[in-house]
Amino acid sequence: MLPVWHCAGSRQALVFLRGESTPGANPQKYINGDHMKRRHFIETGLALGASIALPAFAQSKSAYPTQTIKMIVAFGPGGSTDVTARVITAKMYDLLGQRVVIENKPGGGSNIGSELAARGAPDGYTLFLGTVANAINMSLYKNPGYDIIRDFEPISILTSAPAVLVVTPKLPVNTVQELIALARAKPDSLNFATSGVGTTPHLAGEILLQRFNIKMTHVAYKGAAPALTDTIAGVTQLGFKTALSAIPSIQAGQLKALAVCSAKRLSLLPNVPTMAEAGVSDFEITSWNGLFAPKGTPAEIVEKLNQVCANISRMKDVQDTFAAQAADSLTSTPAQFKAFIQAEITKWGAVVKSTGAQI
Predict the structure, then answer these.
(1) 33 or 82, higher pLDDT
(2) Which domains does the chain carry?
(3) Distance CA 229, CA 227 (A)
(4) HSE-up of 332 (CA within 13 Å, CB side)?
(5) What is the rounded CA–CA span in Å between residue 290 and residue 180?
(6) Of the spans 3-7, 21-25, 100-104, 206-210, which averages the highest pLDDT?
(7) What would you measure as the largest C-alpha separation in the chain, in angstroms?
(8) Mapping DSSP to helix (H, G, I), strand (E, B) and coil, where does residue 82 land?
(9) Who has greater pLDDT, 28 or 113?
(10) pTM over 0.70
């Protein structure tokens, strides 16, 4: 059985980015000893944006941006990362006055798009919407083609959302325990769909299989949208999906939710138990998105983009949009985001080692 922190270990790091207090945690490591509550953390300017008004951008020594900005997303259109990108880029246009064009580059467990972004010019006109997969891939792949710490400038965390264990309505199970019983009764008869090798849905599935000594076939797709579509259609039977992408389908009756991978039930799915309530302890799985720029991007540009992210995180319509899909709108300083990523690399590295999932 995996130790608690293997599945939920960086939850402490994440709550510091939210500005919450966690018993027994050490905020010094992530927020330089400033033990603030979430509202104070976000609203008083963790990322400088709360204390620096947008008109101050005009006083910057740099005229950035003067042209269209490209944001690379390492997953296909329609998935939770793509949805986040579209919300964020629309607001970036409003604040920066320049278009931010999304380029979806799926494949390779997000390594294709990530490596492409790492090779981008460090001039502020190539940005990257990174995810928890980038932290996972540092240990999952012997050579992912990039290093999320060495090759990028972290700008700010943007969102986080728990995973939800769902099954196609065609599968005759209604609880996690019934799913486990079916998998034991019919080994290798079930398959689980994910948005790619090494993603949180993939590792969550591997953890479940290892925990209960059951066998299923992993079906990796190039993105969350096709994986979701095939589970709805019954081509695949189940999967761990981000709440951001799964809730609309659950509410429409296209998927059955067996459990949420969070510490408490989601307000949008009040009748769906947590994994702990379903009999699977220590199983908190969270996906996050954050903004990066290629290594060497000028500090002035990184700071300006960080201010933009901070302002976006405080917009009520943005908060409401993400909340409607069980995601939190977050912000951080670049240094805090870097510390969080390093904690994620350590946590998921232990999971990869324990499950033997290295590629």
Answers:
(1) 82
(2) 4-161+287-355 (3.40.190.150), 162-260 (3.40.190.10)
(3) 6
(4) 33
(5) 34
(6) 100-104
(7) 67
(8) helix
(9) 113
(10) yes
